Amino acid sequence: MVSTKPYLLRAIYQWCVDQGLTPYIAVLVDAETSVPAQYVKEGQITLNISPEAAHQLIMGDDLITCSARFGGVAQSLSIPVGNVSAIYARENGHGMAFEVVEAARQSAGQEETGDEPTPPEPTSPTDKSSGSRSHLTRIK
Amino acid sequence: MVSTKPYLLRAIYQWCVDQGLTPYIAVLVDAETSVPAQYVKEGQITLNISPEAAHQLIMGDDLITCSARFGGVAQSLSIPVGNVSAIYARENGHGMAFEVVEAARQSAGQEETGDEPTPPEPTSPTDKSSGSRSHLTRIK
Fold first, then answer.
1. Which residue of B has its CA nearest to A14?
2. A106 band by pLDDT with thresholds 50, 70 and 90
3. B50-101: pLDDT as tens digits
4. Nearest alpha-carbon partner for A35 in A104, A95, A103
5. Residues with Cβ within 8 Å of residue B56, at least 6 apart in sequence
6. Do A4 and B11 touch (CB under 8 A)?
7. Which of A4, A15, A140 sits opposite B7 (nearest CB)?
8. Does B15 sit within 8 Å of A11, measured CB to CB?
């Protein structure tokens, strides 16, 4: 049975777009995620999945895929729904947080990079959560 | 700005229908709700809003409306989104709970009826929540 999570991710995404807000997702990076490594920090990456930033976005029941530009270069992104730890509006932090699957959590520590992200689209999830954690409700 | 709540209600509804489960909503009854009074218990009513039970269902941003049969008689229901305290699948209790708006909460006590519901569609929300509360995550 499909969990409620992909439905909730799509719901918050649509809410953001309808309200003119910018949907961001926080992703726990592991071997199953395909994201630009130079923007991964502490095993996580935050991605702008607004229609302006993410093209050919498909928010499926198991996988989120899109194409996005990083430093002027288009990259294909692939993110298992289980790796998404939050979705929220950049402008006000409203959204939802999720417990990430254990497999993603365990391998996340191995993916850390020391690079400081200077992203056009992604932002540090730690910057975000300190200001807006109170808006997020953890779903188990 | 529209809250995330109507988006989340629609998401859980669609999840239920896609999984072959029966979506129920728990509603705090007040002057703004139009539901059959004989099935209201302790200021609340639980309604089956599956496609089989609720016809012409519209889950709007502000209002949920549909037509449903009670004791063989079709009735038009109108429920402000703010009065919905939970949406969940009858079969397994999975879904979401919400803080109801203060106005609905305050007036709910005035709407109590002592009738025992013997509903074809609605069930007592207290029967449900005792067994499945752990599945519901309260959204503020």
1. B7
2. low
3. 999 999 999 999 999 999 999 999 999 999 999 999 999 999 999 999 999 6
4. A104
5. B65, B66, B67
6. yes
7. A15
8. no
CA distance B136 to A11: 17
Q: Which residue has the higher pLDDT, A11 or B130?
A: A11
C-alpha torsion angle, residues B21, B22, B28, B29 (rounded to 10): 170
Chain center to CA of B34: 12
Query: Contact A46/A73 with Cβ under 8 angstroms?
Result: no
CB contact under 8 A, A11 and B7: yes
Here the contacts of A53-60 (C-beta below 8 Å, separation 24 or greater) are: A53/A22, A53/A121, A59/A6, A59/A9, A59/A10, A59/A13, A60/A6
Distance CA B86, CA B96 (A): 6
A35 contacts A86 by C-beta, under 8 angstroms: no
User: Smallest CA–CA separation between A1 and chain B, in Å?
Assistant: 7
- CB neighbours of B1 closer than 8 A, spacing ≥ 6? A19
Determine, for residues A4 and B94 on separate chains, whether the beta-carbon distance falls below 8 Å: yes
- Which of A7, A10, A15 lies closest to B4 in CB terms? A15
Q: Cα(A100)–Cα(B27) distance, rounded to whole angstroms?
A: 31
Out of A10, A18, A139, name the one closest to residue B2 (CB): A18
